[in-house]
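Chapter summary example.
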Amino acid sequence: MNNKEFISALASKLEYPINYTSKLTESFINEVIEQLEEGNTVSVHNFGTFEVKKKAERISVNPTTKLRMLVPPKLAISYKPHSYLKEKFK
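The structure predicted for these 90 residues follows.
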């Protein structure tokens, strides 16, 4: 399912116009992004939790050349599904 199909399905379930539903989902995503940028954890009821985790620097080895490289630290988004969602897919 791509974004357009998702918006259409959501609009029909909510009985909202597609334009309004598109703005709603875009606003939701933008708010999640803003909260993550500020370092906050975002928890969505019965869906899961999004948070930013810092990955430490590490040494990586190229398997063909055996060249060692230092990979700098970086921030990564982590998602942990809610237990309700986990039970749905057992």
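To summarize the output: The chain is about 40% helix and 30% strand.
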